[in-house]
Amino acid sequence: MCLAAAASAFSSSRCLSPSSSSALPRRFLHHLLAAPPPPPPLRCIPFHRMAQFWTQGSLDKNKALVEYLKQYGAVRTDKVAEVMESIDRALFVAEGLTPYTDSPMPIGYNATISAPHMHATCLELLKDHLQPGMHALDVGSGSGYLTACFAMMVGPEGRAVGIEHIPELVAASTDNVQRSAAAQLLKDGSLSFHVADGRLGWPDEAPYDAIHVGAAAPEIPQPLVDQLKPGGRMVIPVGSYFQDLQVVDKNDDGSVTVRNDASVRYVPLTSRSAQLQDS
Ligand code: SAH
């Protein structure tokens, strides 16, 4: 997808998305009850304007990408900007690709590193649940980028756990993090990666303040809900072809509130054999 199209799709999907937990999503109510609302103004930044950021030195390119995401509205807080600036995306993307483009990229094994605007969106949704000392679980950790961001946010007293079912990706994500600003956290054990089926979560460090799922589940896996702390939040894409990024908040009485944040497109949360069968 071209950059402008990706930005446009992101922008419009966010505007169309319901933000409440009503049984019938608001976008369907629009179709039933009223003429559709006028199209939202695009927040998309023209490609030539983004390209101006790339003329800086290579070490500044990651910072320029974050600046772009700020202008585009995906990065909204200093906290998320700081962590994304501290973890250089180029370390998590194969050489020869363009790490500072706002696009998902292949990492092998029918998997992708998510687009920067999706990383930013998930960090913004989870930031209050990634305070120093908190526990975070990243299911489908892939390249390790987002797990590294979580680790930087929860710090040495916290826990950031990445679960990935492809052993080669766990090895690669470990290498990636070792070259990043989160290397010491990996060394000290507050950041860890494990080869496992993420649909079962990772009970060893539960309960979690924050759970992120980086692959689309047909429905919310109950073990993940069980491993969420009361007051905790999970962000998970749900669906097959049509997917919603769902925000699952666990209330103090153990009940959960679910709302849709955006229409999204992720690789499936599935078995290892199903994922690899077409590779
Ligand atoms: N957030 C990651 C996303 C990687 S793509 C990143 O930006 O790099 C989704 C990942 O989920 C893939 O690496 C895939 O291998 C993994 N995955 C899919 N199903 C899984 C499962 N059942 N258990 C663990 N990982 C899974």
TrEMBL record:
Q: Which SUPFAM superfamilies does this entry report, sorted A to Z? A: S-adenosyl-L-methionine-dependent methyltransferases
Q: Does the keyword Cytoplasm apply?
A: no
> Which Gene Ontology cellular component terms are annotated?
cytoplasm
Q: What class of enzyme is it?
A: transferase
**EC numbers, comma separated:** 2.1.1.77
Q: Which keywords, in A-to-Z order, does the entry hold?
A: Methyltransferase, S-adenosyl-L-methionine, Transferase
Establish whether keyword Mitochondrion is in the entry: no
Cross-referenced InterPro entries, in alphabetical order?
Answer: PCMT (IPR000682), SAM-dependent_MTases_sf (IPR029063)
Reactions catalysed according to its record:
[protein]-L-isoaspartate + S-adenosyl-L-methionine = [protein]-L-isoaspartate alpha-methyl ester + S-adenosyl-L-homocysteine
UniProt-recorded Gene Ontology molecular function terms: protein-L-isoaspartate (D-aspartate) O-methyltransferase activity
GO BP annotations listed: methylation; protein repair
Q: Give the family, as the similarity comment puts it.
A: Belongs to the methyltransferase superfamily. L-isoaspartyl/D-aspartyl protein methyltransferase family.
Quote the protein name from its UniProt record.
Protein-L-isoaspartate O-methyltransferase
Give the originating organism.
Leersia perrieri
